Amino acid sequence: MGTMIGHDSDATTAENYRRFARLEAAGRSPAYERLAEAVAGDEEILGFLARLPPAKRQPNLLFAAARYLLGDPANPESLHDLVERRGGELAVLMLQRRTQTNEAARCAVLLPALALLPGPLALIEVGAAAGLTLLVDLYSYDYGGQKLSGLDPDAPVMSCRAIGAVPIPDAVPEVKWRAGLDLNPLDPSDPADVEWLSCLLWPGEEGRAERLAAAAATACRHRVEVHRGDLLCDLADLAAKAPGGATLVVYHSAVLAYLDEAERRSFAQVVRALGAVWLANEAPGLVPGVVLPPGGHRDFVLVKDGTEVLARSDPHGGWVEWLS
Asked: What pTM did the predictor assign?
């Protein structure tokens, strides 16, 4: 697939790591801000990255793979040592794995939009990883005191600050059917896969590790099939399996950054041809042709059917501001 947002294909790897430090990690993970700056000045690590395909040089992937092998988040010294002593092992892991930040709290952003649709719903998530954000009706929610109970009393509570007239429903929507699509599906009952998801979390972000563990346990109790496939080639076949009598919804979060501009346009055509409701929860500028409201460079934007801007949100679901 294409390149990452925050990754400029015309920039050097060092420039992209400095960009990551400044635009992505600053204010969110001081440890990774320092680490990215260190990588940008470390010729041995830059040389290691240069031997990988361009799509495999991204900070999130390097830092997660290092954490997987080290057992703890890397620091500049431990990462340099890892590249020096175990570079082959690190490269194999980075070639095998993908960045699949399966943040279940994003359901708090999706829920109000889903609840406005006529039920029951048939859900397809593109880039579903372990399927944790397909369980939107099982989790409970707390929108700053306005609470909503999900169908699984043992599932985690997603806390989300509501800004503006967020249409918080009285009950979770009815989901008749759900399925995921991913190039590399993960199994929530496989300790190695859950460990990989945990390694994608950034040090300094409170509560995410506990939420991931609870969401993975929920996914083990309520198994969802995540099909192996490509969003351009295989989405239509999966959509054809959805039952009649339900509103088909295709949605995704933090997926379009992995596609180049031509692929994003092609994907929009594929989704529109399905006659489904399309919800894109993505970084600004990734849904083709959408005019965006002003906001922070790190905010996500929730767009319905490729045209209607519904909300702006925290990329990990910590807050949502309703705009429509």
From this structure: 0.90
